[in-house]
Amino acid sequence: MPSLRQHKQAREQGMTLVVTLIFMVIFLLLVISLIHSSVVNVKVAGNQQHTVEARSAAQQAIEQTISQDFTANPAAAASSVAVDVNGDGTADYVAQASAPVCTSSQPIKDTDLDTTNADDVSCYLGNGNQNTGILTSTASGGNSLCNSTQWDVQASVNDSTTGANVTLHQGVAVRVPVGTTCP
Fold first, then answer.
1. pLDDT in tens, 102-149
2. pLDDT tens digit string along 77-98?
3. Potential cystine with 155: which of 3, 35, 61, 80 (Cβ 3.0-4.6 Å)?
């Protein structure tokens, strides 16, 4: 028959096994939690990357739109722009540039022009593309031959494969000949 001491030792060894198993379960749950957290962080970083890439594609579409003279026919400026982000020759995003919208058109005063700026010279009243030094005109109320127009240019990227949905707006000021109105 086992002695009391041997019986107590066997019971302590059994308790050590139970405590060890409990700690193993706790560590296993901790490891699973850390792995899950890492996977979530990778997904969040990927989503942020797709959003930044989509924004860049939309900005590229806006820049292509405003780099051309769109004021005469804004509807013709609407376009689709395919953007290859990673340089593999395949378009990763397609940005849709909407037709620019004119929000305001105001005459530019002769006094607001700079006589030393070649772009301003053609706006002086009665100068025929020559700088006469006339800064104001009483017949036109001091207005020059140019108007300042404000435009809203919009581009969107809606990519179903990455889930990136971005819409950008950019304001653009364009000088146009007097009499040009917002379409």
1. 998 888 888 888 878 877 877 876 544 444 444 444 455 778 888 889
2. 899 999 998 889 898 899 999 9
3. 61
Q: Is the pTM above the cut of 0.85?
A: no
DSSP H or E segment with residue 6: helix 4-66
Q: Ramachandran region of residue 141, left (φ > 0), alpha (ψ -120 to 50) or beta?
A: left
For residue 38, the one-letter residue type is S
Q: Give the span between the Cα atoms of 2 and 50, in whole angstroms.
A: 70
Half-sphere CA count of 74, side-chain side, radius 13 A: 20
Cα distances (Å, whole numbers) of residue 117 to 67, 109, 125? 21, 15, 15
Amino acid sitting at position 65: T
Q: Under DSSP, is residue 135 helix (H, G, I), strand (E, B) or coil?
A: coil
